Amino acid sequence: MKKVALTLAGVLAAAAFAPEASALPVFARQTGAACSACHFQHFPLLNAFGRSFKASGYTQISQAQVEGEHLSIPANLNFGALVTAGYEDQSKAAGAVASNQNIFVPGTGGEMQLFWGGRINDFAGFLSEFGTAGAASAGSGKILMLPEITGDIRGGLVLYSIGQDAAGAFELLNTGATSIHRLMGNGGMGGQHIMAYSARQYVAAEAGATGAAAVVAHPNGFVNISRYINVGNGVAGGTNGVGLPFTYIRAAGIVDVAGFETGFGIQNWSGKASALAGAATEKATVIDAQMQGEVAGMPLGLYASYGTAGADAINPNNFNLGIATRSSFNIAAELGVLPGHATVQAAIRSGKNGAGAGVDGDNAFMIGATYELSMNQELTLHYTTQSGSAWNANPIGKNAVTLLLETLF
Prior knowledge:
Blueprint: H1 2-14, H2 26-31, H3 48-55, E1 65-68, E2 71-74, E3 78-90, E4 101-106, E5 109-110, E6 112-119, E7 124-131, E8 141-145, E9 148-150, E10 153-162, H4 192-197, H5 199-203, E11 209-218, E12 221-229, E13 246-257, E14 260-271, E15 284-295, E16 298-309, E17 326-338, E18 342-353, E19 361-374, E20 377-387, E21 399-408
Parallel strand pairs: 4-5
Antiparallel strand pairs: 1-2, 3-4, 3-6, 3-21, 6-7, 7-8, 8-10, 9-10, 10-11, 11-12, 12-13, 13-14, 14-15, 15-16, 16-17, 17-18, 18-19, 19-20, 20-21
Keywords: Signal
Protein name: Cytochrome c1 signal peptide protein
Signal peptide: 1-23
């Protein structure tokens, strides 16, 4: 723990010597705006402008266009890349000889993702990716068709085949409702960090999804109603009679509270893979909230969520194969101690993993720091320790530390 604290201090101290630069990945190229225009504190968290840009279907543009009757597309197709490298260490089984340490670079644990996307016309856009992070991400993409309905209200259809789940089709809050918008770049070897701050990530683990979502968005909230199958981009020949058996419903509101942008919402997953007895189901509910603003000139983000996923002995729940309800209550905070350069984070979880009374206590405490070498290059360090009856018999993964370098260009 002492070594972790010293390393965190070193990361923050280094910020005083950091150069300032503007990032130019896919959407920065299209809009001509720095990454900070869309992100709260650091990528990938969204601010109000970032939410507006996403709700427009990625259509806002400042670069040269090819225009004609019913045609308005960027003169150049915009590309970007994400590369990650780092170090991870997690506790291993008592007496084990093998180490749970891992140094990763692109191609061997690290990511090397290529993104392309942007405007299709004045009401539609797309985002797609291809990379080395695994089959769930290779070839994934989505098309957003969200024309103006009236005033600031947009609505329409999102078609997707992605490495997350139906939540990843359209989400605007930073509570971990989808792993696209999260506090840290790497969730931990066993998801320790991301599950410490987000109930959604604890009770409803993400898997690839293919589906269609009906979306309505306004600056004060959004709704996402989706039908999907929990298979990513590999549904050869369509869903072959299976259809889209699961339903995802998301509703959230966003208002101003004492100068803080305040969001609150609910997520629900339901459905059964087929009518056959014993077919897999998906059942979970999460409520979440966030507040983003400033205190004493420093940006502050506060995030809370509570979720449950019930057990089902007859029709197994994909989110909980235990014998009792899986649940989690999470609180997280991030303070920009050096605005535009460095933040510190903390999160706690009070959870039950569904294994049954006496062996299901699953709590966590996470601390972390982020430091922007530039707007498109970020260094992060996270340490999570877990406790409770769930860890009495097997300590593998109980503690985890991750140092990560993310580069976008």
